[in-house]
C-alpha cells in the first residue's frame, strides 16, 4: 500500500470519526462488492457509535441476503427526504449518477467521500479514495476499516470480515480475475483470520442458483450470436424472458461469462431490455478491446475488461451500431 493511499485512508477514517450522521450509498443493480463494502463499514461505524444510514437505488439481490443487516439498507429514497448528513459516502460508484437521481441531486450533506476502484471514476467527491488497480472497492474499505479499528482498539468482527470477503470474491470471481493481486490475497487471509469463511461466501455467491435463473439462462443462451469470425459474441435478454421464466432482472448476473469464455471470443456483450426502447449493455473483454473506453462513447464506464452502459433506441439498431464499433476496436 502506497504512502499516499495510507494518508487517504487515515484522512477518511478521521472524517468519519469526527462526524455523527453518515449516509452511505451504492450503485444501481448492486453487486457483492457494493453491498459487502457498505455493510462492512456500517458494522464498524455502528460499533463506534455513529448514526449510519445505508441506501441502495435498487433492491438487494437474493444471493446477497446471507449477509448480516442486508435488510437495514434503505431502498425507498423518500426515507432520505428532509434528512441532513455530515457525510455522504459513495461506494463502488464510478460517477455520482450511479446511485440514482435523488443522490445525484441532493445537497443534504457537508462532505462527499468517494471510495471506488473504477478506472472511469471522475473524482466527484470532496475526498476521493479511488484506485483502479484495486480488485474491488472492498479492498479500499478494508484499509479505512483498519484505520478505524486501530484508532478505537477494536478487532474486525466476523460479520464485517464476511462482508468484505464477499466484496472481494464477487469482484474477482473467486480470485480468478486479472485484478487479483498478492495484496488482495493478503487482505483475504486477514479476513479469514478474522472469522470469514471462504466456502460459506463462495457457496452463497457461486453455488446458489434458483430454477428460474437457470430457465432464464437457457432462454438467453439461445440468442447467442457470433460476429467478426467469432471474435464478438452477443446475447439478448428481454423483459418477456423475465415474465415467462419468473426470474428477477438481477438473475442476468454472471451470464456474460458464458460467451466471454468461448474460444476465440475477444469481446462479449449482453443486451438487457430495461424499458421500451431502452437497453442496459454489459461488456466483457479478454483485453484487446478496452470496453471501459468503448462504453464511455455511450455515457457508461467501468473497467478495461468489464464495463457497461445504457442505450436508448431500437434493439436491431443498437446491435448493429455496437457490433460495428467493436469491429473497429478489434
Ligand atoms: P456489469 O456488466 O457487471 O453490470 O458491470 C461491469 C462493470 O462496469 C462494473 O464494475 C460496473 O460497476 C460498471 N458499469 C456497468 N454499467 C455502468 C454504467 O452504466 N456506468 C458506469 N460508469 N459503470 C458501469
Ligand atoms: Mn466493484
From the structure above, extract its key features.
about 325 residues, alpha/beta, inorganic pyrophosphatase (n-terminal core), Diaminopimelate Epimerase, Chain A, domain 1, 2 domains, 6-stranded parallel beta sheet, 6-stranded mixed beta sheet, about 20% strand, binds guanosine-5'-monophosphate, binds manganese (II) ion
| Overall shape | globular
Mean pLDDT: 97
- Binned strand content: 15-25%
Fourth CATH level, the homologous superfamily of the largest domain: inorganic pyrophosphatase (n-terminal core)
Describe the 3D structure.
- This protein is α/β, with parallel strands linked by helices and 330 residues long.
- It folds into two domains: 204 residues, inorganic pyrophosphatase (n-terminal core); 119 residues, Diaminopimelate Epimerase, Chain A, domain 1.
- The chain has twelve helices and twelve strands.
- The strands form two sheets. It has a six-stranded parallel sheet. Strands 7-8-9-10-12-11 form a six-stranded mixed sheet, sandwiched between helices.
- Strand 4, helix 3 and strand 5 form a beta-alpha-beta unit.
- Helix 4 packs antiparallel against helix 5.
- The radius of gyration is 20 Å and the shape is globular.
- The mean pLDDT is 97.
- Bound molecules: guanosine-5'-monophosphate (5GP) and manganese (II) ion (MN).
- The site of manganese (II) ion has 6 residues, from loops.
